[in-house]
Amino acid sequence: MSGTALATPHPALVAAAWRRAAASQRLLDALEAAGRPARFVGGCVRDSLKGLHRDAWDVDLCTPEPPARVLALLERAGIKAVPTGLDHGTVTAVIAEQPFEVTTLRRDVETDGRHAVVAFTDDFEADAARRDFTINAMSCDRDGRLFDYFGGLEDLEAGVLRFVGDPRRRIDEDYLRILRFFRFYARFGERAPDAATAAALRDGVAGMDRLSGERVRVEVSKLLDAPDPRAAVAWMAELGVLAWTLGDAVDRGLFERLVAIEPAPDPWRRLAALVRGARRPVAEALAARLRLSNAEARRLGQLVAVPAERLDRADAAGLARALYRHGRDGALAAGLFALARDGADGDAAATLAARLAATAPPVFPLKGGDVVAAGVAPGPDVGRVLRRAEEVWLADGCAADRAALLARLPALVADVRG
Questions:
Q1: Is a pLDDT exceeding 70 seen at residue 111?
Q2: Given this model, what pLDDT does residue 84 score?
Q3: Where are the beta strands (DSSP E) in 88-158?
Q4: Residue 53 lies in a domain
Q5: Sign of torsion over alpha carbons 194, 199, 202, 208
Q6: Which helix (H) or strand (E) holds 63?
Q7: Pairing of strands 98-104, 90-95
Q8: Tell me, what's the pLDDT at 1?
Q9: Picking from 195-209, 225-239, 396-410, which range would have the lowest pLDDT averaged per residue?
């Protein structure tokens, strides 16, 4: 195999800050010290060609040097090296606390639908040929010259997401690529998948059962974190992937209206919008299926269960009550779900988010000891008095302070006992 670089460096890559950075150039110097070229590859190349800008970049490189040689070259250059995946040729170099993933050029020897046995090579095009999509198979050298063996730049500019080679073969090698397709489609896809790709994706669903919940969770969260994943989710539904991933009880209407108005992407709130119609049992099953952490599962459960409220119409007391009951995260979700349900616009959502951000969640000022000090014996009556005091406090818009509630305690105690 052989590939040809562009006759001149690509302007977007020449200008890329991650390429020009001293740490990147130092790493290239170390890897190329034995006379063989290394290249930047993957997301940093793709995103710069797309004109995307980031405060921090994940920078990956590939090299024909075998992993042991990479470790030696980095050590010789005084660069910290971590053998993160030697079996697959991956070493992490760390310069000034920034990690760089360095991978030896590879070709697949054997695949089973999830894992691959690889052999190292010195052929850049062979390495590019094993990657998933054309837009991810591009690389560039230290001068910003682009190496594009499969038309990735043209696809990127046209909004086409295309597998490298035969889509069925790529999917059979690793069924996670089905979810990766939609994750990248959410960010870069502007045209419908071609017929061959759509058929391969639909037929590949049967092989997805071998995927781990953890890997599915990562892809789903990244997909839903895209600025606008609506078209990707629609294609997932069309091709049977969404039902496999989330089950049949999916509310795409609420999800699509939420995405249209929310001030900023939130993958878990979007996921909750998709499954809210099925309520808590589905949320609990989904949390187990996706191997969510305890914190993630709790948050998803809250977002699924929180009642939709038109908090954009609420006064200060109403906002305070919502913040107390649901917290800032839950109150924003409650308000956004209601706005999305009712077809409100993004201005209303932005205004609500700003009001909630500017309002401190109130804290109920009494504790059980205050009730005991007012003459109530420890026991069930303490809880009853506290709940009655909380009701009064909420009805007043959470405005009463500790002194005011303490002054009202005798009457509240008498009310509960009476």
A1: no
A2: 87
A3: 90-95, 98-104, 106-111, 116-120, 139-140, 146-147
A4: yes
A5: negative
A6: strand 59-63
A7: antiparallel
A8: 39
A9: 396-410
| Kind of pairing between the strands at 98-104 and 59-63 | parallel
Question: Packing angle between helix 252-261 and helix 267-275, nearest 10 degrees?
Answer: 150
293 neighbors 253 (Cβ within 8 angstroms)? no
Do 21 and 111 lie in a common domain? yes
The last residue of one of the domains, among 319, 347, 362, is 362
- Is residue 310 classed as helix, strand or coil in its secondary structure? coil
Same domain for 308 and 353?
yes
Contact 265, 218 (CB under 8 A): no
Helix or strand (DSSP H, E) at 84? strand 80-85
Q: Does an H or E element contain 370, and which?
A: helix 368-373
Output the pTM of the full model: 0.89
Q: Which two tokens stand for residue 48?
A: 């710069």
Mean pLDDT (the chain) is: 93
Domain count, the chain: 4
CA-to-CA separations, 341 to 84, 301, 321, 336, in angstroms, rounded: 46, 19, 21, 8
Q: What integer is the mean pLDDT of 112-126?
A: 80
Give 110's pLDDT tier (boundaries 50, 70, 90).
Answer: low
Q: What's the rounded mean pLDDT across residues 171-193?
A: 97
Residues written for the chain: 418
CA distance linking residue 103 with residue 397, whole number of Å: 59
Distance (Å) of CA 81 to CA 34, 86, 99:
17, 12, 9
d(CA 340, CA 353): 14
Given a contact cutoff of 8 angstroms between Cβ atoms, the answer to whether 24 and 32 are in contact is no
Q: Are 41 and 60 in contact (CB under 8 A)?
A: yes
The confidence band for 280, taking pLDDT boundaries of 50, 70 and 90, is low
How far is it between the farthest Cα atoms of the chain? Answer: 91
Fill in the amino acid letter for 58.
Answer: D
DSSP 161-209: --BSS-HHHHHHHBTHHHHHHHHHHHHH--SPPPHHHHHHHHHHGGGGG
Please report whether residue 58 resides in a domain: yes
Q: How far apart are CA 181 and CA 370, in angstroms?
A: 58
User: Which range marks the domain in which residue 223 is found?
Assistant: 168-241
Query: 3-state class of 346 per DSSP?
Result: helix
